[in-house]
Every structure is written in C-alpha cells, then in structure tokens.
UniProtKB/TrEMBL annotation:
Similarity remark: Belongs to the histidine acid phosphatase family.
Key words of the record: Membrane, Signal, Transmembrane, Transmembrane helix
Membrane found in the keyword field: yes
Signal peptide: 1-18
Keyword hit for Transmembrane helix: yes
Membrane-spanning residues: 431-454
InterPro entries registered for this protein in UniProt: His_Pase_clade-2, His_PPase_superfam, Histidine_acid_phosphatase
Species the sequence originates in: Carpinus fangiana
Protein name in the entry: Acid phosphatase
Molecular function in Gene Ontology: phosphatase activity
Top-level taxonomic group: Eukaryota
C-alpha cells in the first residue's frame, strides 16, 4: 500500500510535559492473511508479527510507566482487565489479530513474577512464561467479514446493502468497467486457476487485486507473473482500481447509510471515551479490530477523504493499520479533570504496522483545520452521523426482523393508532384502498381510450419495440 501523504499531517508532539493522556480508543485492521478467494482465510505468520509489533508500539506509548504518553492510572506490566475493553467480530482472522496485538501490548511477565501460592504452600507458576490472558468480546457486526469479498455482506443492514448495490449502476462505475476491461482481461493467465474470463473486469477489482497481492507476498513463483511485473504501473493500477471500487461501496455522500459500519464505530468510540470521562478513568483503553470497509466508511463520514491533500484516505487501509482517538488534557495532572471542558481529543492514523520508526500521524477531522478538538466539538461532530442504539440501527437500515422485530411492531402500532379510527383493521383498510385506487385507474384509462383514440400496449410489447427507451439498464 502506498504510504499516506503527509502534506497536511502534523508530527506528534516532541514533548508532552504539559499534557496528560487520559484514555484512548484504537481501531485496527488485521495483519497479513490468505486471500479471500480461497476461504477460509487465515492469519499468516507475517500478519501475526505485524499486529504484535503494533501492540508493542502502543505498549511503549500507553502502558510503559516512563512514557510521556502513559495513560493516567493504566496498569504497567501486569494487566488490570477492568481498565481494558477489547472486541473483534466473530471472525478468525480478526480475533487472532486482536490476540496477537494484546500479546504485544501486555507481554508475558515471567513465570516467577506471576507465581501464585496455594493454601497448602505449593507455588504455581503461570504457563507460557507468565502469558497474560485478556478476553476479547466477539461482536456480531461484520462477523465472518474476512471470508466475504463484499464488505456490506457482513453488516446485516438492508438499506446499506441496497445503497452499495446502487454503486454498480453509477456513471463512475460504468465508465471504469468499460475503460479497464482490456486491462483486466490481459491479466487472465495470472489468475485463471481461480477466475474465469467473464470474471475479469472492474466488477471484481478488489478480489483480483487481493489474490495477486497475496501471491506477490507469499508465492516464490506465480504463473504468467511477467504480465504483472512487465510494467511498474500494472500492480499500482490494480491497487488504485481496487481502492476506487471499495470506496464506492463503502461510502457515498448522497446516501450516508452506505457508511453504516463507520456510523456504528463512531458511536462506540464516543460511548467508550465518554465513559472514561464520566467514570474518572475506570475504563482507560478501548481496542477494536475490524475490516478495511469500516476504515473507508469512517474516512468518508468524518471528511478525511474530502479534505485537501487527503486523497490517500480513499485507499484501502493496509494490514495492521490503526486509527487512534486519544483523550487528553492540556496539563500535567495526577487526577482526572472534574469537567469535560478540560478534555481534548486528537485523531491519529498509521497506514500499516505501527512502530517507533513508523509512528502514527495526527490529522484533522470533520473538515476542520485544528488537530486538537475539544471534547464537546469532537462528540458533537461524531454524534451527527453515528448510530448508537439498536432501535436507531433498525430504523436507519430498514430492518424489521430478528432483533428489529420489537421496534417494527412498535412502529406499526403507532401508525395504526394515528389512523382514521374507522374501526377496521389495517389489512382491511389496505384492501379497500387498493380496490378504490384500481377503480380510479381503470376509469381514467377508459376515458383516455374513448376520447383520445389511444391504444393500450402491454409493457412487454413496448420493451421489445425497436429503439424503446424502456429496455432497462445493462447488467454489469
């Protein structure tokens, strides 16, 4: 993945002597994995190392007692579970990535250091050199996301799926589908064991890129690889087209529900950090692992993608990429502020494995210039597009079954109670309404035929007429 432009980026403060970090929320992509077109996908050793290294970095930043960014009151060396909240979708790659990250965040403390003495005097050392067990909550949203090639498959949001499908009928999509057909079909010999020729188009831009990208990382030999390596631009074009394809599916300004994954994440971030403030730091560090689609949705919703020189936020987040929301106060304090007016937030992003050499960069949110926002400003802007309750989610997504059934029933009852009060059931009223409407339509049609001498033509006959404008859009 091409690294992010730093034209608008600001380096992290060289010294934090005049501030205190109060809490943080980290959203991370998984590490390197096998290809989606060869499920089940699995975390590779390289991916394990990537997220473990990122965990090490955040350990040195937030956990280490001597760090200038140490989170106030966060336990160093030995984990205190009540201070952490860790979650990942019910997906093997994401759950394992979270585990690897946590191993770097709180490494083993040593067998002797974690030994416990029983009532009979026996000393029991912890297995695995004092490996620290940290539970990871499995969330249903985006479950199985690494085994699906279409990001909205995993959201369960009906309106988001419909909105994403509309991308396939957009002028942008149709233009790229036509202009890149030859490019994709020339690459058929590279992937012909997985794709058929009819699949070689922009419609499968991400799947084709993903398969070739995984092969370039892990396979010593690749069939017909000269077609990819013959030009330095070929692989870059595969990535650029995949970026465009996936951003189009993840976010659309005129159809915000397409970014439902980012909406849910925004609510979770605000809820956690608000709990940090309200609870005076009882919960200090939130960590969530998720798919690249959530990054793209959030980039669009928070105006990162639309900011000047922010073109790189249109791209798929690289393996082990992290977004971090850091809560702090502009003072060196030993106790939590008594008011949220003294609390500020900064957003950081690193597109890939995070290390001291490749540390996160601070970026402005919501189209603003300021790199540091007041808590009220941050929470207000996030709440403007977030979805933070089941009822809100059901309403926004148009879902009416499963967990949404109770809210659907409430809405139906409310609609019924605001009716005409004619004593008839909604079903009977619906039938009567349909019959009256049909009668009116037939009466109007009859008058048109009698007065105008027009002939009524069946729709299927009209569709078959030469030059008819009702032939419908071509299927991609």
């Amino acid at each position: 993945m091409v690294r992010l432009s730093t034209a608008l980026a600001a380096a992290l403060p060289a010294s934090a002597a005049a501030e205190t970090v109060l809490g943080a929320y980290i959203f991370s992509r998984h590490g390197d994995r096998t290809a989606k077109k060869t499920p089940p996908t699995g975390l590779t050793n390289l991916g394990y190392q990537q997220v473990h290294d990122s965990g090490n970095y955040y350990s040195s930043r937030y956990v280490a007692a001597d760090s200038q960014y140490h989170i106030l009151g966060l336990n160093s060396s030995t984990v205190k579970l009540s201070q952490l909240a860790v979650s990942a979708p019910a997906d093997g790659v994401l759950q394992n990535s979270a585990s690897a990250f946590l191993q770097g965040l709180y490494p083993p403390v040593g067998a002797n250091a974690s030994a416990q003495t029983l009532a009979n005097g026996t000393s029991v050392d912890a297995p695995l050199d004092g490996f620290q067990l940290i539970p990871i909550a499995a969330i249903s949203s985006n479950a199985g996301s690494e085994d699906t090639t279409w990001l909205q498959d995993a959201t369960g949001c009906a309106n988001a799926e419909t909105s994403s499908n509309q991308y396939f009928y957009s002028a942008e999509y149709e233009a790229l589908l036509a202009s890149t057909m030859d490019f994709y079909q020339r690459l058929y010999p590279v992937v012909n064991q997985t794709f058929s020729m009819k699949d070689m188009s922009f419609k499968n831009a991400y799947s084709i890129y993903d398969l070739i990208n995984v092969a370039e990382i892990h396979n010593a030999t690749i069939q017909s690889n000269d077609l990819v390596t013959a030009s330095e631009d070929t692989f870059h074009q595969l990535l650029t087209l995949a970026n465009s394809h996936e951003f189009g599916l993840a976010y659309n300004q005129s159809s915000p529900i397409r970014g439902v994954a980012g909406m849910q994440l925004a609510a979770e971030i605000v809820d956690f950090l608000n709990g940090t403030i309200a609870g005076a730091g009882k919960q200090k560090l939130g960590i969530q692992f998720g798919a690249y689609g959530t990054f793209l949705s959030f980039f669009g919703l928070s105006q990162l993608a639309g900011h000047a020189d922010g073109d790189n936020f249109y791209g798929i987040a690289d393996y082990a990429a992290t977004m971090t929301f850091e809560l702090y106060t502009d003072a060196d304090v030993s106790t939590y502020p008594t008011t949220a007016d003294d609390v500020r937030v900064r957003f950081m992003y690193n597109n890939g494995t995070t290390t001291v050499a490749q540390a996160p960069t601070v970026y402005p949110l919501f189209g603003q210039q300021s790199l540091n926002l007041s808590w009220a400003d941050f929470a207000g802007n996030m709440s403007a597009f977030s979805i933070g309750s089941t009822e809100h989610w059901c309403s926004a997504c148009g879902n009416s079954t499963g967990v949404c059934a109770p809210f659907s029933a409430t809405a139906a009852a409310s609609s019924s109670s605001s009716g005409n009060g004619n004593g008839l059931s909604p079903a009977v009223n619906g039938v009567i309404g349909a019959m009256v409407t049909l009668a009116v339509i037939l009466l109007i049609e009859g008058l048109i035929v009698l007065v105008g001498g027009l002939r009524i033509v069946r729709k299927k006959d009209l569709r078959s007429s030469p030059g008819s404008s009702l032939s419908g859009p071509a299927k991609a």
